[in-house]
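Protein 1 of 2
SEQ + STRUCT:
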Amino acid sequence: MQGFNKYYPPDFDPQKHGSLNAYRGKHALGDRARKIDQGILIVRFELPFNIWCGTCNNHIGMGVRYNAEKKKVGNYYSTPIYSFRCKCHLCDGWFEIQTDPKNTRYVVVSGARQKEEDWDPEENGGFAVHETDPNQGPVDPLAALEKSTDAQNHMNNVQIPRLEALQNLSDHYSSDPYSHSLRVRKRFREQKKIDKAREEADERIKSSYGLPETLALTAEDEESKGKAKKEWEQARQAASERENAKRRRIGAAVAVVPSASSFKLTLSARSTQSRTSGGSVGDTASALRAKILGNTARQSVSLGGRGRMKPPDVKGLVKRI
């Protein structure tokens, strides 16, 4: 554990020395302030772009860090201009880089040359923020409107979807697993209640109509309702067609059955013919009985429940014969 207590020697006088650094003759920044009397402070500086060393002509990549000598060399209005002097790690050469507040960038002053990799805002859906050309003419309102429109379209079509994708990815990797589990279990419980209520309704329907337990009922929705209604209409039309055909058959059968008066005339004619012919009385009676019974049965089947006719008195007819 780091100690925060400080040792104060017996001869330390706060009125005289002020602080321990002054008592020991050291600066508060330590070795970084060894050239503080010249206005130089040692800082950690990172290259903002790629350069080639002017001494060894080697390439030094962007992001390489050096212990640079930081010094104030001027002002741009009220903004100070700082110089960073670094020693190449591949040779003994020195190069110097300064800040440029006017153009918000860094520039190589000496000892190296910068690799030109300027970012073009117009190629990336933007436009230059700082216009420092003194010979530039008046701003065209239509051109400014076109630039702003292009920037807005680029933001809506490229930047916003990209930011949303990054936000979703961040939420996916940094979200709380417990909250995900809680949300999933809550949804599962709600779905389980719905399924249980549907099963109970299906059981009531099966018990009411005597349906088998293994029969799977379709979930009630608009598609199933339309399909069931269509099948019901088709079945109703088929039943109506069968009923009409049955009625036509019954009407045709009723038209073929002879009436009671014609039936009596036929019997009297046959009885007269049998007397004149002198045939056997027993054979004639048996044939007549069979004929009468057949006609009666056929008439009963064809008419159904529409009122049955009383069969003729076969015994009287036989006796009269």
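Protein 2 of 2
SEQ + STRUCT:
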Amino acid sequence: MTPKERGIDLGSSKSKNLLHQFHFAVATTTTATDGVVSCSVKSKDPNVIEDKKNEAVNQKWHGSVGGIVDAPIDEVWKIVSQSSRLHEWMPMVENCTDLSGKEGVPGYTRLVSGFMFPQKDEDRSWVKERLVLMDPLSYIYVYRMEASNVGLDRSLNSLKLIHYGDDSTLVEWTFEIDPVEGLSEEGIVDYLGYIYKSCINRIESAIGANKSCVAFFKKL
């Protein structure tokens, strides 16, 4: 299914502009040697050059989005914390395959593919992620992109749930990526925020659909 068929509207002027910037980012980062951001330094002093390179590599771009889900926090956690249920609230995800380790335990790796980050040729994107942290008591997990065909290797994605009144949950999604030379931080952060926010917005309907399915089969 295409992103549009999965509920991702890439036809608006805003999304087209963000998508164009993202494609530029992919073309730039995937051609970088070993993923190290290049920097132009006039000084010939090797120490100065090394300091500039380290400064470029260590700097991160950060972004965050959030939303309120009208469902108890435990119900939200059940759907967002399971790899097998990613497609239920991430409409651009088609497949999620376990690669190694045990789900829920740091070190666990998975391969996610679909239209998370649409390519110019409309080919599917893929991301290999490693679990860094999973804390069910605090309702938080962190995944790191180990490899991909979208140029966002080494980026971190954190999801945290917070009790928000009666039977409501605040979902906070924060992320950080390596800077991309020639691209504005605002452009790429806005695009990722747009995609991640669309996922948060679908959690509530995904929970409702699952309840309806369970109720249907109980009647059989």
